[in-house]
Amino acid sequence: MSTRAQIAIQTGPEEWAHVYIHYDGYPSHMLAALAGWTPEDIIAAREIRQVRADKLDCFEPPRAPRILPLPACELCHLYIWKDTGWVDITDMAE
Questions:
Q1: Domain boundaries, position 68
Q2: Is residue 94 part of a domain?
Q3: Which side of the chain, N or C, has fewer Cβ within a 10 Å radius?
Q4: pTM of the entire structure?
C-alpha cells in the first residue's frame, strides 16, 4: 500500500506547484529523504514515484505539477519548503 503525498512549492505570489509523490510519503521517511533536495530539484522532477536521499525516482513521462493558489493537502501528507528546510504541514493545511 502506498502512502501518497504532495510537495507544494511556491512559484509566484499566489501560485504553488504541487508535485505528486506516489509512495513512502510518510514523514519519518520523507523529511530525511528530502533533506538533500532543493525546491528546484523537486520542480524539475515534476512527478515522483519515491523520494530517496540519493535519488528522485521519477515517472517517465512525468505529468506537470498542479498549480493552485495556496498549498493544499489532497493526499496523505503535504510538505513545503520553509526558511531553510522541508516541513510537513499536513495538520495545518486545508
A1: 5-88
A2: no
A3: N
A4: 0.91
